[in-house]
Amino acid sequence: MAEKPLDGSTEKVHLPVASPPRNHGHTTAAWVTVIVVMAGAVVCSLAVMFAMPWLFWTGVGVVVLGLVAGRVLKMLGMGQPEPTSGRTTSRTQH
Length: 94
Description:
Oligomer: single chain
Helix content: 40-55%
Radius of gyration: 23 Å
Structural class: mainly alpha
């Protein structure tokens, strides 16, 4: 028979294989993305306030540029590292 927990619950605990990185997004890619997207949002909001459609679309372009810049910086290794599992996927051939 299996042992029952002292509190009477039957729920099993599932823990992750490895703990996630602890930098919480404090990376160059994250900062650049947030700053450029926020600047684009400010431009968009000013365009709405002053009824300037061309400025609104300029702000949307800045937002898209920020998202692309963040992804490129992450691909260049300036973002948060991918979590690693405890398993190895490489196989050696003899």
